[in-house]
Amino acid sequence: MSTFDAHDLDLNRIPAVVHDRLSGFLDSKDEDIAAIGTPVSDAVSYLRSFVLNGGKRIRPLYAWAGFVAAGGLEHSSEKIEAVLDAAASLEFIQACALIHDDIIDSSDTRRGAPTVHRAVEAYHREHSLEGSAAHFGESVSILAGDMALVWAEDMLQDSGLSAAALQRSRPAWRGMRTEVIGGQLLDIYLEAHANESVELANSVNRFKTAAYTIERPLHLGASIAGASPELIGALRNYGHDIGIAFQLRDDLLGVFGDPAITGKPAGDDLREGKRTVLLAKALERADRNSPAAAAAIRAGIGKVTQPADIAELAQLIRETGAEAEIEEMIANLTTSGLEHLETVTMPAEVKTLLRDLAIRSTERRM
Amino acid sequence: MSTFDAHDLDLNRIPAVVHDRLSGFLDSKDEDIAAIGTPVSDAVSYLRSFVLNGGKRIRPLYAWAGFVAAGGLEHSSEKIEAVLDAAASLEFIQACALIHDDIIDSSDTRRGAPTVHRAVEAYHREHSLEGSAAHFGESVSILAGDMALVWAEDMLQDSGLSAAALQRSRPAWRGMRTEVIGGQLLDIYLEAHANESVELANSVNRFKTAAYTIERPLHLGASIAGASPELIGALRNYGHDIGIAFQLRDDLLGVFGDPAITGKPAGDDLREGKRTVLLAKALERADRNSPAAAAAIRAGIGKVTQPADIAELAQLIRETGAEAEIEEMIANLTTSGLEHLETVTMPAEVKTLLRDLAIRSTERRM
Q1: SS3 letters for A15-30?
Q2: What's the pLDDT at A366?
Q3: Per DSSP, which regions of chain A are E strands?
Q4: Which structural domain, as residue segments, surrounds residue A264?
Q5: What is the pLDDT of residue B265?
Q6: In a shared domain, residues A249 and A352
Q7: How many structural domains are present in chain A?
Q8: Measured between beta carbons, which residues in chain A are less than 8 angstroms from residue B106?
Q9: Of B134, B158, B182, which closes a domain?
Q10: Quick check: pTM over 0.90?
């Protein structure tokens, strides 16, 4: 693997570097996996494709930004490759989260390709194996997600970070994993209970998205660099606000988004019955102003399957005025998130970078 | 939590001490979980019951034995509470493995009580929640298992072991988690492929059981105490042989065991279609001596559901002579496993203890 001049590592290069670190890490596991048996190498190849073809690397980007914000490039004695591996390890947590969520949400596609459980199900069917193809697909995917989760730990622990930096990373790492799993548990409980509380829907956004995607990755990177409590506090506050705004944008896209941009069917959240802040606000407003609309929204959510019914339900939600209220919340959270950056000193280019990321995260899906 | 005079900690007290450590750890997570939301505390309560009502604590026992074998009580400067937490953390890996395996095996009961996914399914039904009760039960259980897996890491990393001991624990910890997940992946692939290879069935025993249950826990405890490579090698060899013998005993019980002792229905492995070494050996022998019996075994495995058909299939397997061959393998592995202990020096009482554990593990289910 190549070495880096960290000062050359501008943000646009991070996703490619993360890809290389992940690829190298996966290569390092090949021998151990092959020793268990060829079928396991086959199973792990699904995880490999998923991780290497994946996403915008937003969590590693934020972790790197946290490290740089804390002056890591100037003052830290940690090896840059080790810091990059720690940042890249977040992609394995994300792989577990997405592979398991796709089972939970019964999703067929992800990033324009079949989800892992559907791909394994197809393999089972093509080879006319024993037992239920669907159950086999889910079983392999549960285990592939588990493997991703333990490899996240391995990639961090074996990154080459100093013992002191690993110790400093504990609060962020510990918080993040419990929060994302807890947030996802809350999400499915709210869906099953047909929750209408804005407060609980906000908690899902806070823990499942904001903490996991922005606040804790920044916290992790800053801790590795040995940041002050003040800087960590400011970065976490930024992450809290921008992360919630990011999820509110996602909620709007889940109801009103263009499938060509979101990569998901129009109104997917309505079909699935997701208990978003948008939905809770729409019901609150409809209860005040139009009981008939409130009843129609309650009857449709999680039940609609036809595009025309989905579009009609989206229109009912729009007419409550909840969309405009959410847009205002996004604008306010973006403002307050950026203000937190002004309370502390950090390199000017990092402030610019966090400002850019905030705008990219909240204006449209990254 | 009480402190310990480690020299008073005989093996019989370890399960109770492990229970207390696990209970204390779970208490320490309560506040973080409650902050995410009450429904998450409800979900986590299933994990709590599962972990605290669980099993014989065989993995923590072996980890503790490894620590004592390496002279940890005399020569180590690690805090005893930290070592016990590291040993107890293995129970969270086990919780994840069992909760996820029960989904994969579609098991209804575990330790005489409903499995977690069935218990959550019943909760969904009792409260007439939205969506499929069975799917909700599986979804919550996937996430509860994920939580257990990250809490295993937390309990080890936050145990208070020194940075040096944590570093020494890496090979055992890293190997164990990949091996148990890889072994379980191999197991379900062999089942789906109707595998008849003795060698691959042996690999499942080696990685899913022997490494995970005995070899790596011993390795972990010995590493924490700073054991020599020779001692670690001898303990691992012991663990390899005794662990495989333990699984072969389990395979015999899965076909011929008394439900009153195993806690599972008679012949459960036959109903499930488990591709055990016992089955592979039976088919090998039947192919040589009785093609009609071989055909009947192949037709029945994984297909039988009625008690009479299960009993008939078990009888066919017994008549191949495979049962006697497996008994001989168990006896040979127990002998060779115990011989490994004679190649190194360790406190006499630890040798007695490992000898006792070997006999308890291989003579009947622990």
Answers
A1: HHHHHHHHHHHHHHHH
A2: 41
A3: 109-110, 113-114
A4: 228-366
A5: 78
A6: yes
A7: 2
A8: 135
A9: B158
A10: yes
Q: Is the Cβ of B23 closer than 8 Å to some Cβ of chain A?
A: no
For residue A302, give the DSSP letter.
Answer: T
User: Which of A28, A181, A274, A304 to mutate against chain B (most B CBs within 10 Å)?
Assistant: A181
Question: Which residue does chain A place closest to B191, by CA atoms?
Answer: A130
Residues A115 and A259 grouped into a single domain: no
Which run of H or of E encompasses B199?
Answer: helix B198-204
State whether B192 and A302 contact (CB < 8 Å): no
Smallest Cα distance from B327 to chain A, Å: 25
In A158-212, which residue ranges form alpha helices assigned H by DSSP? 163-192, 198-204
CB of A356 within 8 Å of any CB in chain B?
Answer: no
The answer to whether the CB of B271 falls within 8 A of the CB of B311 is: no
A194 at interface of B, judged by CB pairs closer than 8 A = yes
Q: Please give the C-alpha separations between residue A337 and each of A237, A241, B344, in angstroms, as whole numbers.
A: 7, 5, 62
> Hey, which residues does A109 pair with through a beta bridge?
A114
Q: Is the pLDDT of residue A7 over 80?
A: no
Partner-chain residue, chosen from B106, B170, B203, that has the shortest CB–CB distance to A157? B170
pLDDT digits 0-9 by tens, B276-310: 999 999 999 999 999 999 999 999 999 999 999 99
In chain B, what residues touch A43 (CB-CB under 8 Å)? Answer: 185, 189
Q: Which residues of B touch A182 (CB under 8 A)?
A: 32-33, 36-37, 40, 44, 147
Checking if the pLDDT of B177 tops 90, the result is yes
Question: Given pLDDT bands bounded at 50, 70 and 90, which one contains residue B349?
Answer: confident
A6 confidence band (pLDDT: 50, 70, 90): low
CATH number, domain of A345, equals 1.10.600.10
Domain identity same for A163 and A306 = no
The minimal CB distance from B188 to the residues A106, A139, A203 is found for A139
Cα–Cα nearest to B73, from B349, B339, B352, B355: B349
Section B236-261 average pLDDT: 93
Average pLDDT on B147-170 reads: 98
Residue B69 lies inside a defined structural domain of this protein: no
Q: Are residues B191 and B325 both part of a single domain?
A: yes
- From B127, B158, B189, the end of a domain falls on B158
For residue A335, the distance in angstroms to the closest alpha carbon of chain B comes to 25
